[in-house]
Amino acid sequence: MLHLEIVTPEKKVFSDKVQDVYLPGEDGEMGILELHAALVTSLKPGELRYKQDGQVTELAIGTGFAEVTQEKVVVLTDLAKDAGSIDEDVVKKALEAAEKALETIDYTDVEERRFQQAIIERSIAQMQLKARRGK
Fold it and tell me: pLDDT at residue 117 above 60?
């Protein structure tokens, strides 16, 4: 078994033993099993899945980092929500506001463009999970 911890700035979202973990890494999806080689990787907005007692749980996550050891995976992310806790109206409004902001931001303001793009990517990850799970 592998210990998984998922932490956001607000709280520890999950901490328990799991069978496997799938993460949206910068270079694509990563599957993590017990005794995986140690690594640290950046995460992009997308879907994190883990299996516990034969049941798969899916979360929409934002940007962050994951530290993997042979026995443990620690995910530090700015967002971690299951389909049931995603408010579609709030996410759609955030997506629309970020898209509108991108249209008006000066192209030289790289930091603000990255910030708005991150909001768009997190919003899309949440909407995709909500659409698939419909909870």
Answer: yes
